[in-house]
Amino acid sequence: MSKPNIAVLGSTGVVGQEILKILEEKDFRFNSIKFLASARSAGNEIGFKGKKYIVEETKPEAFDGVNLVLASAGGATSKAFAPEIVKRGAVLVDNSSAFRMERDVPLVIAGVNDEDLKWHKGIVANPNCSTSQLMLPLKPLHDYAGIKRMVVSTYQSVSGAGKEAIDDLEHGTRNKFVKYPINFNLIPHIDSFLENGYTKEEMKVVNETKKILHLPEDVKISCTAVRVPVYTSHSEAVNIGFERPVTPEKAREILSSAYGVEVVDNPESSEYPTPVEVAGKDPVYVGRIRKDPALENGLALWVVADNLRIGAALNTVRIAEKLVETGLIKS
Amino acid sequence: MSKPNIAVLGSTGVVGQEILKILEEKDFRFNSIKFLASARSAGNEIGFKGKKYIVEETKPEAFDGVNLVLASAGGATSKAFAPEIVKRGAVLVDNSSAFRMERDVPLVIAGVNDEDLKWHKGIVANPNCSTSQLMLPLKPLHDYAGIKRMVVSTYQSVSGAGKEAIDDLEHGTRNKFVKYPINFNLIPHIDSFLENGYTKEEMKVVNETKKILHLPEDVKISCTAVRVPVYTSHSEAVNIGFERPVTPEKAREILSSAYGVEVVDNPESSEYPTPVEVAGKDPVYVGRIRKDPALENGLALWVVADNLRIGAALNTVRIAEKLVETGLIKS
Q1: Would the CB atoms of B237 and A226 count as touching at under 8 Å?
Q2: How far is it, in rounded angstroms, from Cα A141 to Cα A149?
């Protein structure tokens, strides 16, 4: 199969940079590659695989001859350029929330619901970071015991909110976090509020989880999403009630052989995942696996993963790999 | 009624210092006061209400003539001296976990279960900080709708772990947090692990809540307790399933008039409690009040309070006030 012509859209952002790193690490094969960004960043130099590239401004013509677009430039940019990309026959793998809940757009975690790639119509959506890291451990547990209800409380790092947020934590500034400081603080508010009192971030966990795992509508999920003063890696306390019993021992066995998951769970020697240790790594780490007495057939987990990798860039590249491997990209 | 002779045990610790501050703020009336600590701290000077006091070493004879002991010196010290205190007819208000689950020791949050003070036998226990801040909002909600199940995820500040922990966060050292750094990190491990995979801290929330609210045994509670890089105030994501429906509006109304509780809940203007803002204040702050679709008759809350105040020192002094007011101290 021929190698694709790639465009990386939003290549100068936090996730864009991580995408480049992962393309290099994986030695992703391509015929040509170009780097696109806003007019503000156009003209900048980007080093990639030992070569220098000039960042080009994102314009419809920039997608001429491109087969595969890896985008992390925000919802507005993705929405603006998606028709131009699709019109040219390229496939857009999009990190924004713009298309995730569209019926004709597959929302995919590689290794979880790859079969959904088959019905793409030019756009494949990458889930929100707080959802993404849950899918790899939840999928095999759901297959075994059937998720019935789930309560998720997140502890989300600032890198999920971009460069300005990272700077705020580093320098104690208040540019991204204007109303409340993030330093030595917690902010129970990520993305905007909806009428039901939940934030969009919280409803993403609810709705994206249902779409990716093809859960029945009567599965009940709630989420509290909180920003914490951590640079990288999101952590989540997850409490699940299943249809059928699943012991902590069985869950540990299932998760130990699950794709993309690593179990770190030895209370006796104080071993459990923490965000600092997990940053920069590919797997989703699961620890604190125990019975949850509050829920029928309950299980409690502590799930930590690098939000820039499995939560964004790594899954983008994995989706691209699957698309290329299975001939789902025209070239 | 006569004013008590007070001894403050563990007076040089983080909670001990907060107790002194609150005794001053409230202008707590006493006949005499003395400050006790370990041999290491004995001889130090303590300023209190404009006077200087010399810290005395904790010895049985130090409790001669004392009516009221306010203790925050750790479980071992409380256990060692409790018989000596009780023998002398004094009442011990204890912050440690040593006696909390003893059948003949009332575990009290002032304003929640004051009636339990009546059957004290010389010792009254102050709940663990992560439990304490839940009781003031939970009590009136439980009275209205009946708690059936509850999932709690905590975000606990370092001051709950003492001076060394505060220093670790301030200086990036690893004295209290030896295995994992706390700076820009999260540690899902507070107090030691039990055989069921839960930590003692987590089981304190479960068991102390049941004891204080006199919950039936079939009420189901689970907790994940996590240390976060915040100096002061514990935060908790709380998901409750009730026996009977309670709307967010009704909950807001109940909590708005509840003793010791303040509702901060205006999503439209990004208002909700954060630990930095709550530090140093007396009320338990509740925000993010919303329906929890994951649980029958479910309600989700975000509860933040100063762990040194309502979580420890403030409740200690409030208990002391109640004991004095109701003549439950011999003098």
Answers
A1: yes
A2: 13
Assess whether A234 carries a catalytic annotation: yes
- Contact criterion met (CB below 8 Å) for A315 and A284: no
Q: Amino acid identity of B89?
A: G
Write B255-259 long-range contacts (CB < 8 A, 24+).
B255/B137, B255/B140, B255/B141, B255/B286, B255/B289, B258/B136, B258/B137, B258/B139, B258/B140, B259/B111, B259/B136
ipTM of model: 0.95
pTM of the model: 0.96
Intrachain domains A5-127+312-325 and A130-307 with the same fold: no
Please, which pLDDT band fits residue A139 given cuts at 50, 70 and 90? Answer: very high
Chain B contact set for A185 (CB, 8 A): 230, 274-276
Contacts of B182 (CB under 8 A, 6+ apart): B158, B165, B168, B169, B176, B227, B229
- Domain B5-126+312-325 falls in which CATH fold? Rossmann fold (3.40.50)
Q: Give the distance, in angstroms, between the CA of residue A314 and the centroid of all CA atoms in the same chain.
A: 8
Residues 6+ apart with CB under 8 A from A51: none
Record: contact B294-A197, CB cut-off 8 A: no
Chain A residue closest to B231 (CA)? A184
Q: What DSSP designation does B9 have? A: E
Fold of A5-127+312-325: Rossmann fold (3.40.50)
Q: Does domain A130-307 have CATH number 3.30.450.20?
A: no
DSSP at B55: P
Number of Cβ atoms within 10 Å of the Cβ of B61: 9
Q: Nearest-CA distance from A150 to chain B in Å? A: 6
Q: Which of B184, B220, B287 has the CB atom closest to A231's CB atom? A: B184
CB spacing of B221 vs A293 below 8 angstroms: yes
Structural domain spans, chain B? 5-126+312-325, 130-307
User: B246 near B299, Cβ under 8 Å?
Assistant: yes
B78-133 pLDDT, tens digit per residue, is 999 999 999 999 999 999 999 999 999 999 999 999 999 999 999 999 999 999 99
pLDDT per position as a tens digit, B231-288: 999 999 999 999 999 999 999 999 999 999 999 999 999 999 999 999 999 999 999 9
- Helix boundaries (H) for chain A: 14-25, 75-87, 129-145, 163-171, 200-212, 248-256, 275-278, 314-325
The amino acid sitting at B91 is: V
Check CB contact under 8 Å for A151 and B294. yes
